[in-house]
Structure formats: C-alpha cells, structure tokens
From TrEMBL:
Residues 136-212 form the Potassium channel domain. The lineage of its organism: Bacteria, Bacillati, Actinomycetota, Actinomycetes, Micrococcales. GO terms for cellular component: voltage-gated potassium channel complex. GO terms for molecular function: voltage-gated potassium channel activity. It is a multi-pass membrane protein. GO terms for biological process: action potential. This is Two pore domain potassium channel family protein. The chain crosses the membrane at residues 25-44, 56-76, 125-143, 163-183, 190-212. SUPFAM superfamilies: Voltage-gated potassium channels. The keyword Transmembrane applies. It is found in: Membrane.
C-alpha cells in the first residue's frame, strides 16, 4: 500500500511496515519502467543495442519485486499467515505486467475521494476497476501481439489489431474478426475473458449502487 495508507497488520508487524513504506515508491517506479520497456520492446522498432538495454531494464525491474517480497516474508512477525492474507503481493511477483496497477492507489487515496465513508469506498472501487480494466486491456494487447505475430497463420499482427481484440474480448462482445491461434495467445484470451466478466460485473454493480445512493440523497434533500 502507499506510505500514506500503510497500517501495521497483525501478521506483518512494524518491521515489515517500515520496509513497505521505504520501498513503495521505488517499486511503483519500477512497475512503470517495466511496462514502458516492455511496450517499447513489443511495439517499437529498435536496434540491437537498445533492445539489449530494454531487456536489462525489464530484468532488473522484474527482480526487485521477488526480492522485496522475500524481504517482506522475512520481516513478518507471522510469515505464513501474512502470505495467506496477502495474495495480491504474490500475484505481482508471478505476473509482472500487473504491477502498474499499483499506480491506481495513488489516485484512489487522493483528496478527491475523501468524502463520506460509503461514497469514498465506492469511488475508490470504481477507480480501481476502471483503471484495472484499462491497464489489463493494454497489457493483454501487448502480450497477445508478442505471442501471435511470429506465427505464420496469425491474424493479430499489429498493435492496433491486438488492442481491438483485447477491447472486444474484455467487454465480452467478441466479434471474432481477430482470434489468437497460439496456445499462449489462447491462454491469455481465456484469462482476459474471465477477468472481463468479473471486472465489468463488479464495476457495473458498484456504479449502480453509487447512482442509487446519490438519487436517494437528492430525494432526501427535497423532502
């Protein structure tokens, strides 16, 4: 969590909390660098020297997360309980492309959302879900393009095609004009479809709840 929102938990303890506060911004910056370097590697047309530099940057920024994760476990008062209660931390280690989602916390904890408890909670959920849907769509487009474009019978060969495919897939529209043909591409597609149903379902429910609350508040004011 961000330094402004970190609280000592019963499994992590104060030492772990101080470590999280110290590395939070460096890890967030590393997540941004990872995404930028990966994007250029997939989309850009770079020379060999630049490609090697980008691969080194990807490797270094990736390595920071498992190292930090292991340190968090070592500093936790109750390591296994902390691991079980913080699956997102492990998810960031296993799936590096999801790490830019850390940026959403900066927006979610801004003063814009410091309102009543219920309203602030819904606003933060909306920020997380909308931001997550956008980032996951972009990330899936990159991953599928990397997996597909070298295959002879692939029809996803440009970033425009892959982004369109990712957008219609996560929204469950599924026109079928572009489809992955590799095992890796289809695995990404399956994860994106499942994630799209979950994210859009929760996003719609949260937005509906927020609208109902606002309408109720307006009605109460005019009574």
């Amino acid at each position: 969590m961000m330094a402004t929102g970190i609280r000592t938990n019963p499994w992590g303890g104060q030492r772990q909390t101080r470590w999280q506060q110290a590395v939070d911004w460096p890890l967030t910056i590393a997540a941004i660098l990872f995404l930028v370097a990966y994007s250029i590697t997939v989309i850009g047309d770079v020379d060999v020297a630049t490609a090697d530099l980008l691969r080194l940057l990807i490797l270094v920024s990736w390595a920071l997360f498992p190292v930090s994760y292991l340190v968090e476990i070592a500093l936790a008062d109750h390591p296994w309980q902390w691991v079980l209660h913080h699956p997102v931390n492990l998810l960031f280690v296993l799936l590096p492309l999801l790490r830019p989602l850390r940026l959403l916390r900066v927006v979610a904890h801004s003063n814009v959302f410091q309102q009543s408890a219920g309203t602030a909670f819904r606003a933060r959920v909306l920020v997380y879900l909308a931001g997550a849907a956008t980032l996951v769509t972009y990330i899936a487009a990159l991953a599928v393009l990397e997996a597909e474009r070298a295959t002879p019978d692939a029809n996803i060969t440009s970033f425009g095609d892959s982004f369109w495919w990712a957008a219609v897939t996560i929204t469950t529209v599924g026109y079928g004009d572009f489809t992955p043909v590799t095992l890796r591409g289809r695995t990404i597609a399956t994860a994106l479809m499942l994630g799209g149903v979950a994210v859009l379902g929760v996003l719609t429910a949260t937005l509906s709840s927020w609208i109902v609350q606002r309408v109720s508040e307006l009605e109460d004011r005019h009574k």
